[in-house]
Design goal:
By secondary structure, the protein is α+β, with helices and mostly antiparallel strands. The chain contains 14 helices and 22 strands. The longest helix is centred in the middle third of the chain and has 17 residues. It is globular. The two termini are 31 Å apart.
């Protein structure tokens, strides 16, 4: 049943984006989604968007038309333990998938380090974790159901409506509203997490080994520090241990205090970054020699990290062979021309895929992320970094800040025109295109 519509102000997680749509509709099932689309279109209450949990930093949700909230359209519909295929309602939060999947003996093959997003939002923007042999969350989708501009429900998979499937797994919500996803899961597994510090140059010398020899590898680099922070996750036969308090509240308070101190006294950014690095992990002796103790947890417990200090973010995917040179150049820019910042760079690896608008289409990639404290301006930091990303053939994360429009984006995606053709066929009147998305796709006529 569709809940009564009303107007309300919507704000994204970082607080940087706000809109007041003419109506907000709570749609609790697929029929309600279709009704909401039909009525909004008939009444001219467009563009129509689905807000998810607001963890995107680009204005892909911003509309003065309609927001269709599908938070109550959640839960696992069916889990086939024999095939590993799981049907999930599109409003389900990633955080709510782990325990019921484990009960069924299954798990996601990979996920990001934030689990607050809806599964539809994560899929639509190409959200990912890390691991050179593993793809994004979207790559785990083997079937989808989409409610189109005309209120029609389309099923798409490898064998049925293949063009909609290839376009719809990363679509930024431009084809319609996802109502259901079928995920290819794997047998449940346990992960051993190790963290540590290495000298930056020593880490770069061993980077290929670190990436190759770990199922999941990433590093964090405060550019004014000489060390980098390393994190690895690997499958283990050891039983999961009860999670102990990570002291995240204390760590959040320390990080917030440092951000505020740096905001008021910019000259402290270097000393504070070195302080945060020194106090963030045991020293590593080499690529396989951690001095700390492993955390052993179920996969869905090991992947996410608490991110409670608000920030804005830019992330680009570059070809994996260019990752080390690109991140060094970005770090140099941050030190010399990045202004006042405190958050570290984040470096991850992702397997290439075949989804038309995926940042990883046709190439194994490295993603490099920059974060800026939400109470600090980010333009100077991000603009200089974006020029470097573009020089390396980078593709932006659809949910994270960038300035590219159709003119710059089209050459980066070999199937750009194919995506556009599917989009125009499914949404000929552009009811899902906000002014921002119209610029993104080069549709100034809408």
């Amino acid at each position: 049943m569709t809940q009564p519509s009303h107007s309300a102000t919507w704000t994204n997680w970082s607080g940087a984006l706000t809109c007041t749509p003419s109506r907000v509709i709570m749609a609790e099932d697929e029929t309600a989604i279709a009704d909401a689309i039909t009525h909004a279109s008939h009444d001219g209450a467009t563009p129509i968007r689905v807000p998810g949990t607001g963890h995107s930093f680009t204005p892909i949700v911003i509309t003065d038309g309609s927001l269709i909230n599908i938070d109550r359209h959640e839960g696992i519909i069916d889990a086939d333990t024999a095939t590993g295929r799981v049907r999930v309602k599109a409003g389900t939060k990633i955080a709510d998938l782990g325990a019921p999947l484990l009960e069924a003996g299954l798990a996601l093959a990979n996920q990001g380090d934030i689990n607050k997003q809806s599964i539809a939002g994560a899929v639509s923007t190409g959200t990912h974790g890390t691991g050179v042999t593993l793809g994004s969350v979207s790559s785990q989708v083997v079937g989808l159901k989409l409610v189109t501009a005309g209120g029609e429900v389309i099923e798409a998979n490898f064998d049925e409506n293949r063009d909609v499937f290839d376009a719809g797994r990363v679509s930024i919500g431009a084809l319609g509203v996802l109502s259901e996803l079928t995920l290819q899961c794997v047998p449940a597994y346990t992960l051993s997490e190790m963290t540590g510090r290495m000298k930056a140059e020593a880490m770069f010398e061993q980077l290929d080994t670190l990436v190759r020899d770990n199922r999941h590898f990433e590093f964090f680099w405060f550019p004014f520090a000489d060390d980098v922070l390393i994190k690895t996750l690997n499958i283990t036969d050891e039983p999961a241990r009860p999670a102990r308090s990570a002291g995240s509240d204390f760590e959040d308070r320390v990080m917030t205090f440092c951000c505020e101190l740096s905001r008021v006294f910019p000259f402290l950014r270097g000393p504070l970054q070195r302080f945060l690095t020194r106090n963030s992990g045991a020293e590593m002796l080499g690529a396989r020699e951690f001095t700390g103790k492993a955390k052993i947890r179920h996969a869905y417990q090991a992947f996410p990290s608490e991110r409670n200090v608000r920030f804005n973010e830019m992330e680009y995917a570059v070809p994996i062979e260019h990752g080390p040179d690109c991140v060094r150049e970005i770090a140099d820019h941050m030190r010399k021309n990045g202004g006042n910042f405190l958050f570290p760079l984040e470096y991850r690896t992702i397997k290439g895929d075949d989804m038309w608008l995926s940042p990883f289409y046709g190439r194994d990639s490295v993603t490099i992320s920059l974060h800026q404290y939400a109470r600090q301006p980010y333009r100077r930091l991000f603009d200089g970094a974006e020029a470097i990303f573009r020089a390396y053939g980078g593709r932006p994360h659809w949910g994270k800040l960038h300035t590219l429009t159709a003119r710059e984006l089209a050459p980066l995606y070999p199937r750009w025109d194919d995506f556009q053709a599917v989009r125009k066929r499914l949404d000929p009147e552009g009811i899902f295109l906000t002014p921002y998305l119209a610029r993104l796709f080069g549709e100034d006529a809408y």
